[in-house]
Every structure is written in structure tokens, then in C-alpha cells.
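> @MW can you paste both from yesterday?
MW: sure, first one:
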Amino acid sequence: MTIGILTALPVEANAVVSLLDNVGSFHDPLDQNRYWTGILPSTDPARPHGVAALMMSKDNTRSAAYYCANMVRTFPGIQVVIMVGIAGGVPRLQTPERHVRLGDIVVAADGIVDYTHVRQEHGKAEPRGRQSAGLISQRLLRAARELQLEELRGHYPWAVWLDPARSPQARRPPADTDVLYVRGIPVPHPERPVIGSMDGLPRVHHGVMGSGDVLMRDEQARDELAARYPDMLAIEMEGSGIAASTAAEDRAWFMVRGVADYAEPAGKNDRWHLFASYAAAAYVRALLEMTPALDGPGIRLGGRALPVLAPAEREQLEALLRRLPAAVDVRAVWQATVPELPRPSPEVLATPAAAVEHLAGLNADAAGLHPAVVFIARLGRSLGEHPVGAELVGWAEARAASAGAADALRARLGDGSGPSGGGPVLLIDIMTDGIDRDSCRITPYIQDGGGPWRPRPVPGGPADVPVTGLEEAARGLVEEAEQLWTRSTEPAGIEFVMPAGLLNLPVQWFTGPRIFGRSDPLCLAYTVTVRSRERMREPRVHRAWGNRWRQIDAKPYTGRVLWGIAERTEPAFDAWAADLRADDRYAVVVLSESPDSPWGRRELFAALLAGVPVILWDRRLARPADSAHGLGSLAGEPGELPARTRRVRVEAYQAGTDEPGHSGRWVALLWDDPRRLLTDPGVAS
């Protein structure tokens, strides 16, 4: 984790957590606090910010200092602590360009005035002036300047998160509830400046915030502070504590607030708390998206920052890497570890040590699991019986356990996201003939079970068959695979890697080998899924594909399901496809029609282009209205979707001809794990 976010109120915490990706929770036995963890985009799509968020139990500066200190001790990689939430605005009727209104966003770009930290002289208490400005994160200040530039161009990157259609809780209260009182009498607001203003959106202000240990509900005291500090825009209760605590820990801080009231009694209520909280959180998300990834501190190996290691651990790892055999397939281990990243330079894959050095510069994921640790574990697993393999796995397991990510590492090594969990898999790659569309070439691959994903070609190589002969060819391949799996005790799966034109074939109902005089459909004995050959061959969509797949792996699952278009018009489709591309939380798409129809095919390719890894549909060209219920029952949390799909297919088979419309008979599942590519990434043949 490189970013810490503190909030004081439940409404503020809810706003922050709702805008994180891959949300999880974390608890350290030595820290009584419970944290939310997640990621937020950075300027580098391959290196998002790791974020830890915490809600304080009390809203004052001393509590803020305490919670901030705990946070950076629990997450030593945190470089910046951001305070996000609401504040009281300081109105300036005489200077419209500095006048704040309810819902506006205030950035403490020029520091904090701790107005309750005073010097007593000559019978008067005088605030000690602006403090802690020098510790503001310079990277976030630069990003805030870039957002200012975007605003001058008419772009508001944070505004998309305040769209009620996307975030219903962020609905802006009516404008007539923004009432400003002067001496208890309502007064009109000055006109908004043209620059930096857009109807219905908050303005973003940059300046000074007042910070104190008292809840400001005093118009006279507020105005006296405003007169003393002409650039003070808002007043809050935690910032000075965070500034002091981060200074003691040699970290930077930042603060963003949404204006929820005017710090006076006549108009103070909670009506704007929800929107102001979301406005501040939305701005922080956009701010971090403009900020390069922050490397966490660590002991260096080969010039790159590794996860924090004691000297003895670092020496142990270097010794293990020196003992590796020469014939190590670094590329295969890399692809199994970080398939969502672009293919690195040959120098990075030249040696295991070079790959570790490169991965060491990346952030850990939301579970605290670092990709360098995963790589080392997979490297050990790839060595089979070689003695150093077990030692590498043990080293990685110890590092993951110390980071609280032991379960996450076990899940990653198990490769349970495939159709058969960690069991054997038969991949049948199907390529249609460019001239004879009724002919195709099939190439089978076998994955023997757990360990790194390294499917190998089945002896005998590719075969050319007519499309009408695919069922017979598949039956023979399954029989061959079973001969190779005689020692396996795990459930097996079958993946058909097919071009879009064949995806609607009923491959799950192909009959398997005839045994003891009986030949059953494949879906009774195997988990059967289809995969997109076009996407496997197109590396330019692999990054988006890998990013969305993280939603599937996240615990708890926070992804979303997008149903196909309801209205068959070009504008409706364009709006649907734009929504799909813009929101990477969509991990599952349910097509409105099968891919054999024009609209279903367009939806399919839009989902493949956006990187959606899981796609469901009813194979019938004219889908009955009641099939939506069956698809909807499958399209919840997708982690067990292959197993659930197999169950409903078995139920449909058991129902037989009594229920020809059973959804299990017609459901098709594209389950496309980007970590499970064929031998040459991007070339599926």
C-alpha cells in the first residue's frame, strides 16, 4: 500500500470505499483498527495505487494523529496520507471567485492554519500561523494542477463519479437548499465565475484550510478567521493532526474536503453531508489517476525496490536465485504471474533475477500480495522435484504470511479460476479455414493439473476436420486426454477456444467417449466453457482483459453485471457500449441475444474489446422472455460460475424432454481467464 486515506464519519468512509476498486478488508493483530484495502488507477495502467482506508472513531486532531500513526506503522509502504471528508465553508460574498458554496470541493493546496494552536501574548491569544505546508505531497499538488488545466479546457474527470445514474447516493440536493445566512438572515449568493464553473457541478477551490479541535458553529469566529487569513476557504477538525503525525513518520499529507455547511448555526444541518462526501472522494480518485504510482520503501536487490526485507531474507533469496538451474522458463512463469502486463523487454525475461528486479518496482495488490512474491512461488513450483524449488516456495510463503497474504498466495498458486479449479484441463483450439468456412483445424492441448499454467500440445498435432465433424473429433480428444489423466483425482475441465462464428455451437452437449455401452454429454462429466480465439490472438486488449479479471479474483467480489441492450437502435447500442468501456467494474455481460444474431454478435465483440472476461447468453436465436430469470440466477458473484453452470446443465439433462425450455439446456458460458493463454501469448495456434 502506498496511499493511506483517513475519514472521520461513516458517510465519508462509505464514499471513499464505494470508489475503490478490488475492495477487501485487513486487520493486523498488533493494530486494533480494521482497514479497507483496494486499488485506484495511476498514470500507469499496469501499476495502480495500493490504498488502505480507515475511519476514525472520533473527529478531532488528536484522534487523527493517533490513527495516522497506526496506519503508517501497519502499512510501512504508505507514502502519502490523504484526509478526505466534509468541512464548513468560508463564504466570501465580496470576492465571487473565492466564494465557496455547498457541495464545492476544497483542496488544501496552500497548507493548514491550526487556529486552536495559539501563542498567548499581552493578554491575547494569537494563532501561530500557517503550518505544515512544506509537507504537502508535491506529486499530488502537481496532479491537482493538471486537474485545474483540465477544468480550464472544460473537462471534469471527477464529475463522472457524481452522476446519479452511476452513484445514486451521490445525488445533489436541490439548489434551493443551499442557503447562506448573515446574522441569521438569508442572503443571495454572488454569481458564479464563468471559469471553473459548470451547471450542476461543484467548483474546485485551492487554498488554506483552518483546522482546530472544536466544531466551528460560530459565524463571528469564522469571519474573524476569514479576515485574518484571506485565502482560508474551509474549516475542519483533523488536518493539523495528520500533518503533525506524517511529519513525525517522514511521510507527506494531502487534504480534500467537500463543503457541507457554512460553519454557523442558522443553516447548519446534515442535508449536504452525503453529496459533499462523494464530491471529495470523487476528486481524490481523479487526482490519483493523474498521479504516477508511488514506489514503497524497501531494501534493494539489484537496484530495484523489493517488498520490505530484512537483510537475512534478502541474502537468502539471492542465494536461492544463484542455485537455479540454467533451463528455467522465465517467460512462462512471468505470464502466469502478471498476464495483464504488456510483454516486457527481452532483458527483463533474460534471467529469473532480472524478472524479480522488474516486478519489485510494482505495487502489491489489494490483499497485500506482491507480484515479486507470486513470481518466486511460481518459479519454485515450475522446478518440479529440483531441491531449490521447494525452498523458493517456502521463502515466498513466509513472505506472504508476514504480509497477511498467505491465503491470497495459496489462491493464486491454486489457479482455481479455471473451469476445473486446479484439476486437469483439455483445451481444444479451433481455427476456421480462411477459404472453406465449413472446414476447421483443431489443435488440442493438455494441462495436467496444478502448478504453473503450461499447457502442452497433445501428441499427434493439429487435425483438419469439417465443422460438422467437430463433435466426433472432440470425443476422440477427450478419450485421449483421459488416457493421460489416469493418475489424477481432481475434477477435469474442457475449454473450447473458438472464433466468434462458432461460439454458439452446443459444445457442452457434445457426446463423450462411449464407455460400457453408454455415451453421455460432456457437461455431465466435465465443466465445459468456451473462450474467444480472437481475443487470445489480440495482445492490444490483454491489459484491459487482465484488469477486469481482477474483479473475479477479488474477495469480496465488487464487480458488476451488465445486461445487453433492451432497445434495438444504434443510439441505444452506442450508449450501452460506451458505458461498458468506461466502467471497469463490469466483469460479467449477459447478451440480449445469441451471438448468431446481429445484435448479439455486436454485443459480444463490444464485451471482448472492453476486456470483459465472463459472458453469458441463451443459445436460442429467439430467446424466450423467461430465460432472463435463469441467466440472472447464474450471473451473481462469478467465482463459482463454471460449477453453477455445470449444475444447471445436469438438472436440464435430468429433466429430459419434460422440460425442453430448461435454462440449463440453453445457457452458454464464455469463461476467459487471461492468465491461461496458450503456449505463445497472443497466438493461439
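MW: second:
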Amino acid sequence: MLFYRYSVILVDYKFSYTLKMNSITESTTIPDLLRNVVGYVHDENTSFLLHKVKENWVEISYKHVLDTADAISSYFLEMGITKGDRLALIIENSVDWVYYDQGLQQIGGVNVSIYPTLSESEIEYILNDSGARTLLAGSPFLFRKILKVANNCPNLQRIIPVFDDYQKYLPDTELNAGVISLKNLIEEGKKTIDRYKKNIEIAREAILPSDLTSLIYTSGTTGTPKGVMLTHSNFVQNVKVCLEQIPVINKDDLFLSFLPLSHVFERTATYHVCCAVGSKIAFAQSLELLAKNMAEVKPTVMSCVPRLLERIHDKAMKNGTSAGGIKAKIFLWAIETGKEFREVHEAGKQASLILGIKKSIAEKLVFSKIKEKTGGRLKFMLSGGAALPKNVGEFFGNLGIKVLEGFGLTETSPVMSVTEYHRQVYGTVGRIIPGIEVAIQDVESKNIITIQTHESFDENFECAEGEIIVRGHCVMKGYWNKPLETAEVIDKEGWFHTGDVGRYYKGNLQITDRIKNMLVNAYGKNIYPTPVENTYLKSPKIEQIFLIGDKREYVTAIVIPSKEVLQETFNLNEEFFQEQDSFIRDQKILDWLNADIRKYSSELAKFERLKSFLVKRNPFSIEEGEITPTMKAKRKVIENKYSEDISDMYLQETEAD
């Protein structure tokens, strides 16, 4: 135990020294971060980015990034881009995303990131609402999407494909916007750098922390997407205080990036953090190749979403127990040993000699093999975007893999709270970050139950649940072009109303659900779907679940089974998943799922338990408009789309009664 504390102190000291040399102040802006790293932390020839080209990982230096950014800035200045102009991009995570962002940021441009999965009409809306003057296109598929709506976007002056053979995709009709490949744009920019070098420096120095740096459009589970206005100060202060709360991140770390940079979580937790401290970023090729990439680059830190961790958990449990016999017994013994060791450690006690020996054996026989698949060097993973089921967090803790949870919204830059590295309370999203206030407000009376800050932290504090509201440096400037909508969520006292329900538990923030998600059954009982859904998601048979029951006598659900497990259990081919009927009616499959539904129902209150369910053949999808790009279910869309089947399900249950 003494060694653990000592090692943390060493890490803290190392990080404090880095911050002293590369301090983040009230006046620091986004373009300052990377240049401060080059000035104080790394030589300009040090590797910053890694990406895979064919079969090899190629390293890109800070110098190359900054020189390329200067060329892009020079081109933009030549075409008349000025401070405050919006410059859009629709592209997967890549070095080109970084070049473009750095190029526009240092001349005061505003990054308008568009999710690659959005429809043509949504892309058109965002381009017109933001008034974007340029648009970076990341692939031929996305380029063709843009071409269909480009002439409906009068402000759009340049479309910039990242590939060279874009001419073959151009339409027969004339485009209002010019088209130039990113490669040619950079070459053109290099020709004018001497002329604009001083202008770039002047523009960079003229940026204020209060200036707009990004418009990130909310997913929109209901209504029209809104452009969240985030400032340089929003992002920079968020990074600064998160680094204070997780002081083990340093210049020697390697982050593997796979969550979309068009989303605020990856933007802050990976990209901006690395720009601030000098950590490297490796861009994963795809979600499908993520496991392979982890083994190749051996990351030390990675941001992720709960669903990825759930899949790793499910696969590890299946691999460890499916063979049965002695192998399964060893696996389960190791997990139990890890749990015992973790609980002793979390209680601040010293593990006994025997427990220490057992833990070493478990590490060698089981844990090390699982860790090898992550590259074997992970300090921790940071989970965000949704609630991480408590049992999944504990599972990783049992293995000795630390998973920190954070909470926030696009409107809060995003982090409001994050787990402290040395103090973990599973099922919570950590301690409030420095410099902000987070209150719990009674949903009905609107009275504030409690206001908590970083400084007021008490590891024994608990309170009743209510809406989570926040004020401080993380809160957005407002919604672009939407003053009324802004006034609806930021009250006169400066509190931003998150729409999330939660409470404090052991001093940490704990999320219950979204207010809009709350179901009120026919008897007036309030039911928050997320905890109920997470209970059923413990089953390895279930991939997704959508709870139904608002204004109804009892709760039902649409259940999507794990395709892999379903195929293996019933020997199904791909044709089964391509059948026209959206739902599976096979009684054997229904009974198979019902066994786990009944098993996990025992953990819930009677009014929360499923009385019936539909089994959907394929997952909810972004393309079908059923979920948002951040994987949140669009409740009204789903209920309307499958209303007949839902009504039939309730009718059959009524007749059976």
C-alpha cells in the first residue's frame, strides 16, 4: 500500500512539473495548446500522430502538423476567411481531421463537425444553419452525399475531398461551390505562406478565450438538431481541471482514438488532452479492426463507450466458461480472487500474503491473457456517453484494469464529473470537477436539494434524486441562432438544466436517467428505463433493450438478442436476419430469451418487471432513424414505428389475463 501511494506521488510530481513548464492559464486558447507543447514539452520533430498506411503505422511529427496547419490557414486567408467564419468537416477520425482543425482554429475559424452517419437532409440543414463556407469530405461516399445537397447551401464556397480522384464523382450539373482536394489545397497554401505568415500569427494572438471555437450539433432525440456554441475557454478549462482530477496522464502516454471526433467526448478527452500534455494519438482504422489495432499500438489510455466494455466483458466470460471443466473453474476462481483483492484495496487495507499470492496466480493464469488483447499497457480506460453497468465496471476492476467514468453533455464541454484515479465508486460518474457547481433540483417543486463543488466533496455524502443542473466554466455559450431554446435550458441564475436525473452517492454523482425517458404507468408509478434496461442487459443473450410502459398497466419491451449468441445457439444463417418481418416469432427463441428475462426480473421491483416482450430481428440503427449517432434511442420514433406490434402485444396479454 505504501508503494502504491508513493508511485502516485511520483506521477503527480512529474505531471506538476510538466504543467509548470506548459501551464494552462485563463488566456490559453485551443491553438496555444499544441504550440506550447512544442515550446516546453517536446522537440518539434517528436512524433505526435500515428496512423496506419497499408500495413505499417506511420508517425507524424509536431512540425509536420504545424507546417500543414499553416499551409491550410494560408489558403483560407487567401480565399477571404476571417475570424468567426464557420468551416465544416464530415470525416472519420484521421490526421486530416487534425490538420484541418488546427488550420482553421489558429485564424479564429469555427469548427463545425458533422457526423458522417447523418442523412443528406440533416447535412444540408447543418450547413445552412451554421452558414459554413467550406466543407472537408472524408470519403467518396460522403462526397457523393454532399454533392446532392451542395447547391442548396448558398454559403458553401469550397468542398474539399481528402482524396485526389474526386473528378469522377462530380455531377453533370454545375456546382456553385468550388472543389479542391486537400492535397492541392495544402500545396496552394504553401505557395502563399511567406505572404501570410505574419497574418496567421496576428490572427492567433487576436483569439480570445471567450471566442467561439466550435459548433457541435446535438443528436436530437426529439426535434431539430441544435448547434451548441463552445468557446476556447469552455474546452481549455475543461481539459485543465480534468487533468487535475486524473493527474497520471503525461507526455509519455499513447491514446488510441476510435470514438468520433465529431462528438465532444472524444474531442476533449483524447484530442485536446493530448494537445495539452504532449501525449501521442494513434487513430484506429475502424471499430471492426479496433482489437487488432490495440494489440499493435499498445495504448496506455483509451476513451470508450460502455457498449464496447460490455462486449469485452461478455466475450471474456464466454471464452472463460464455455469449455466447462477445470478451465472454467480456474477462470471463475480468478475472477473471484480479483474481486476479493479489489475490495480489500478499495477499503484502504493491505492484502494478506495468501491473497497476494492468489492474486499473482490469477494474474498469470487468466488476467494477463485478457490484458494482452488490449496491448498490455493500459493505465486506464475512460468511459462516457452512457451509463456503464456497475457489474461491468467491477469486472474490469477485478481484472486490474481501471475504468474511470465521466459525465457531461455536449452543452457542458463535456465533462462535469469524472472518477478520481485513486478513489473508485462503481455505479457513479465520479467527483465534480474544479471550478463548477452541480446541484440536484427536485423535479416537481423545483427546489434545490443540494449544491456540490469539488471542494465540498465528502465521501460519505448522499442525497435524494432530482434533476442535475450545473453552472460554471463548462457551460456553453448557447445554441446557435436559437435564443429561445437557450433560455429554456439556461435559467436567469445561470444554471444549465441537463434534463438528467441523478443524486449524490458517497460524494460522487450518480445518474438515474433522463427526465424525458421517465415512464409513468397507469397507476402513477414513476419508472426510469435505464436502470431497468441495464439490469436485463446483464444477460449475454441481450444486445439492446427498449422499455415500454408509459400510461400502461405494466412494462413490456422490445428486445434485440445478441446476433452472435443467437446464431451459435440456434445454428442460424444470414438469411434469417434478412427476413421481412422485423420481429422474431419462433417460440423456441422466445422461451430461450424468457429464461434470462425471468432470471434478472427478480432484481427489480414488481412494477418494473417485464410482463411481455417483442424480439426484434436486427438492432436499432442510425440509418433507420431509430437511434442518434451517440446511440441514444429515439423513443417517439421507435414507439410510432412499431406501434401496431406493440398494441398487439398488449392486446394478447390482456386476452390471456
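> thanks! The chain has 21 helices and 27 strands.
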